[in-house]
Amino acid sequence: MPSRSRRRLLAVALTAVAVASLALAPQAMADYLTPESGGGSRNAEEIDALFKWVLYVAAVVFVGVEGALLYSLLRFRQRRGRKGAVAAQIRGNTSLEIGWTVGAAVVLIVITVVTFVKLPGIKNPERSGPGGATAAGALFASVDQPGPPGGKGLTVDVNGQQYVWRFTYPNRAYSYDTMIVPTGTTVILNLRAQDVIHSWWIPKLGGKMDAVPGYTNKTWFKVTREGAYPGQCAELCGRGHAEMLARVVAVSPARYRRWVADRKRDIDQANREAAQQRRTLSPIAE
Predict the structure, then answer these.
(1) Is residue 203 part of a domain?
(2) Model-level pTM?
(3) Which of 109, 189, 219, 221 has the maximal Cβ count within 10 Å?
């Protein structure tokens, strides 16, 4: 067998092995090309499903176009014995030109229709569970989105600053970097920034949302089971950007109520002690 043929056979074999390895290792490739999913909020699952659907359509188009290109390169390549010969020149194929124009338009229309069908599941908040925590004032889950059905939800103010996230709860308790939320509850986030633009991103709980100084952006999620969901600032915000991490910890509604009450009590106690120290030190300062 000529050396050129052996090299081609080896290349095909190596390609087949690589494809088989990827096909037989789905867990290793999970969420490698698509948004993270699994066990998070329903809107995150809808984002993942829509992304994959568009990806599959794009893959079919890519394979078709590249297949036609490779076929043309191989079918009309220059061969021995035809040195200097020019391949047949085909111009003005009206049927072909109309076909690929209409085909591309149909693909775009289908993607548009499916996207708009999927958007309500991403955009509109869902109802809190019967045992979920509630708080007054939960009106919107995005700038142009309705509130959760029944008006029940938990609002958390999220403030991004270089380089930390601060979370303020309805009873004015607050925490940094780690947000505690109850399961089965529609959690509405009011996103603000104190200095530069930051971007809130917990991959398994939904898409990115910018926190912009002077504006309030809103998003939502609803965690169905207890667990920790890591994330980070997704907007380059300065030299400490890589350290601006965030984490959402979902607990049962009963545990959340106890935690937020204890947190508020500890903060109030710390404020009273600080005020007492200021009064004690004030005469000395004078």
Answers:
(1) yes
(2) 0.59
(3) 189
